[in-house]
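Allow me, if you will, to draw on your knowledge of protein folds for a short while. I have a record of one protein: its chain in single-letter code and its fold written as discrete structure tokens. I remain grateful for any guidance, and I place the record below:
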Amino acid sequence: MASKPRPLDGITVVSLEHAIAAPFCTRQLADLGARVIKVERPRVGDFARAYDSRVKGLASHFVWTNRSKESLTLDLKQPGALAVLWQLVARADVLVQNLAPGAAARMGLGYEALSQQHPRLVVCDISGYGDDGPYRDKKAYDLLIQSEAGFLSVTGTPDAPSKAGNSVADIAAGMYAFTSVLSALLLRGKTGQGSHIDVSMLESLAEWMGYPLYYAFEGAPPPQRTGASHASIYPYGPFQAGDGGTVMLGLQNEREWKAFCEVVLQDASVATDPRYASNAARSEHREELKALILSTFSTLGTQAVLDRLDQAQIANARMNDMAGLWAHPQLAARDRWREVQSPAGALPALLPPGRSSSFDYRMDPIPAIGEHTDAILRELGLGDAEIDALRQSGAI
């Protein structure tokens, strides 16, 4: 049976990418059917390949962000390699790059130059701070952007700020690059013209900081670092059960507070205690209320606490670890796992979020370094002798 057409079938993306932000963007384009040609450095490739070796010898970050792509190795400092890249761009719909600031423009791959020759091309530049402004040339890594965007000021405990456990600034930039490319392709369908997209990691994460930003409007005190608890709602956060497990729970209104006292704490009188009679009062008396809740939970196992919370219709969750996420029954029940091939063999991979009735996501192999170099060069019309010459010179 013929496969269903995907939204980006027939779209070709050339990506000068490394690390996470750009690869995460282009992997999602590939998920939707785009052909993604990943340009890597000869022999070493994307430096994210060497971050670790946790997945059968492959790097965890690389496995996550690079399935369904073709790997082409080019030393872009060599004229022969650059000529190959220009040929590819001439055939492409989208160029994505997160090289050092100004590097693409120095190779003649800035939007102004490219749009003259290829007016339908969508060019997406991803950087730490954007292509202008006083911070343009600053190096930008995920942790540094988390710091600049104020993320660290509201994340962690009162005693110590904490970075996110994943690359949240890279992910934010990758997501906005992905959606911006999609919107540019939609616009091209109406106007026939390509676009220049300038995605900044700082601006991406700053957008995600909207709540604490407005909470501190006009110099008001910002949210305090409260660990895994909520800064302004209580009880909302982690509580330990008697068997050592941790339960997350969250109350949003007074109806839920009453049910929590009656069903979970099994003491309706707590609901009308003046110290806890409103969210503001509960937040003010956090330590006393926490002690009361833990006193009840200490007599119960984790599942018993969750059962009481479910009975009271209080939002709750078990605090999972990575082993728990791998084995999560909801992911299994919804058939979210697939298998993709890689240089290390078959690997499990989650389907992209957003189950569609119209098409199946592309879940093709993770490429080895330069795996598709010869095939792509032949597609461009190069013969064996020309390919051998490029390889001998180190251009590929």
User: Anything to note?
Assistant: The CA atoms of residues 49 and 62 lie 6 Å apart.
